[in-house]
Write a structure and sequence with these properties.
497 residues; 21 strands; disordered N terminus; 7 helices; three-stranded antiparallel β-sheet; Porin; elongated
Length: 497
């Protein structure tokens, strides 16, 4: 993580305690010199011939000097006692100055006069936003071999490991985040995830969903956050975020397996809109989304999708998520990137012609999604997911549906070694996922080796199977009913995420 430099500038300020000690020392020195001068000057009243008068005079002066020293000590003690009341704490000035200097504002010269401490202002709070900023990076690479030797080295129905017999860059990411910090009095925050590589083409900017896909392709997430002071805090995000429909996520280091499931590939990758989360107590949280649609950074119709979900945590070891999503995923316009002379008279947005669709489809999409994870022991984690998806082209159309689920188990053998297994079933009734009505199954076993923190090596064997001949082979037009692959992945990450 890269944070803001908080080096102090204490060299510019003298220590008040040290000034008092120097003053006291000077006074003692001056007093001693005075006493010495008095002691060495003959008294005009003392007869030179008297033997007892000088002795009495010296004794008297020693007594007076002793009393003056005691008075001076008492004065020094009084000054030291008054010091905290008259002088600000030595650390106060350096605590403010470095942050102000780092943000590019000027630091006034030390004039020796203590200025009043200014009150905390909204401008200062906004500048303090940078103090919690984290910058993180991730690199995800792999090599995979498909025993079918498919034409074009294409792995069918894979989200990220899309290439066979090829050294591949799955994704390179940069994540910037400054989350809200209520303990510091900061209710706002933001996060930006930039993504590059094969995964970007697989999950971002699909022309079937995005009107202008290239515009947002490398922005995986970008949203701002504000915690509204309601109850325990209502967290509201506005922007684009990764979908939490389905148990699997984008970053490989946080998953049990290297490859992603059929369900990750089918369910939405991201949404754009506004979402809110309210934590009722330690056992219940509620989520509400209003979005442009599934994988729509820009809306392509006037309908706004909604998602209502709850997260249950009955024990610290169990987390159960239940979601229901409703949307309308049919566009009412077509964006034309290279319009003909006739089409140039159409309405346009930033140079892109917009062609309305006559009688656009209005059928709804329904997604019921639930998943649960259980940390059974310190080393063993178990998880399960179940999904049911129903969609109509028009409101009166016969629905198409996808249903099924997945099971997971992961075991941490040691801090460096682990393995995980996954099995899943997806019934693609009507071809919503694959374009063909078929029943898909998949089994995966993954082995982990972490030689050090921030570096992960994974070996994986996976076999996809269908009741149809669907998967590519080495011969054009000849399809296989199974797709076995053997893969190796290497993942690096830097930062605290």
């Amino acid at each position: 993580m890269i944070g803001i430099d908080r080096r102090t500038m204490g060299a510019r300020h003298s220590s008040p305690g040290r000034s008092v000690n120097v003053t006291a020392s000077a006074a003692l020195f001056a007093l001693t010199g005075t006493a010495h001068a008095i002691d060495t000057t003959p008294s005009p009243q003392a007869p030179a011939t008297s033997s007892e008068a000088p002795s009495n005079s010296v004794d008297s002066r020693i007594t007076e000097l002793t009393q003056e020293v005691e008075d001076l000590k008492r004065l020094v003690h009084e000054l030291q006692a008054q010091l905290p009341k008259q002088t600000p704490a030595p650390a106060a000035a350096p605590a403010v100055a470095p942050a102000t200097a780092t943000r590019g504002t000027s630091v006034p010269m030390d004039t020796g006069v203590t200025a009043a401490t200014p009150p905390v202002t909204p401008t200062k709070q906004a500048a303090d936003f940078l103090r919690g900023l984290t910058i993180n990076a991730l690199l995800d690479t792999y090599f995979e071999y498909n025993t079918n030797s498919p034409i074009g080295r294409v792995n069918s129905l894979r989200a990220y490991d899309v290439s066979s017999n090829s050294f591949s860059l799955s994704q390179a990411d940069v994540v910037l985040e400054d989350a809200p910090d209520l303990s510091a009095g900061r209710r706002f925050g933001a996060r930006i995830d930039l993504q590059f590589g094969q995964a970007t083409a697989a999950t971002q900017g699909n022309p079937a969903n995005e009107l202008r896909p290239a515009l947002y392709r490398n922005v995986y997430q970008a949203y701002g956050t504000y915690v509204i002071p309601v109850g325990k805090g209502l967290t509201v995000d506005f922007g684009k975020w990764a979908s939490s429909l389905g148990i699997e996520g984008n970053y490989t280091k946080d998953q049990l397996n290297y490859s992603r499931s059929f369900w990750f590939d089918y369910l939405p990758f991201y949404h754009a809109g506004v979402r809110a989360k309210y934590t009722v107590n330690d056992e219940l949280a509620v989520n509400l989304w209003i979005t442009n649609g599934t994988e729509q950074t820009e809306a392509f119709n006037n309908y706004k999708d909604q998602m209502l979900g709850v997260v249950l945590t009955p024990t610290p070891a169990i987390t159960w998520t239940i979601n229901h999503y409703q949307g309308q995923e049919h566009p009412d316009v077509i964006y034309i990137q290279n319009p003909t002379p006739t089409q140039q008279k159409l309405p346009s947005q930033q140079g892109t012609a917009i062609l309305p669709i006559q009688n656009p489809p209005d059928g709804k999409l329904q997604i019921s999604d639930t998943y649960v994870s259980w940390q059974a022991t310190k080393a063993l984690v178990l998880a399960a997911e179940a999904d049911y998806v129903l969609e109509r082209l028009y409101s009166y159309s016969t629905p198409q549906r996808v249903e099924g689920g997945a099971l997971y188990a992961g075991y941490q053998i040691s801090p460096r070694y682990a393995f995980a297994v996954r099995t899943e079933y997806l019934a693609d009734i009507g071809g919503l996922f694959s374009g063909t009505t078929q029943y898909l199954k998949e089994g995966t076993i993954t082995f982990d080796y972490r030689p050090m923190d921030g570096f992960l090596l994974r070996g994986e064997f996976r076999r996809d199977a269908s009741n149809q001949h669907y998967f590519l082979s080495s011969t054009l037009g000849v399809l296989q009913s199974a797709q076995p692959t053997i893969g190796f992945g290497a993942v690096w990450w830097f930062g605290q995420k």
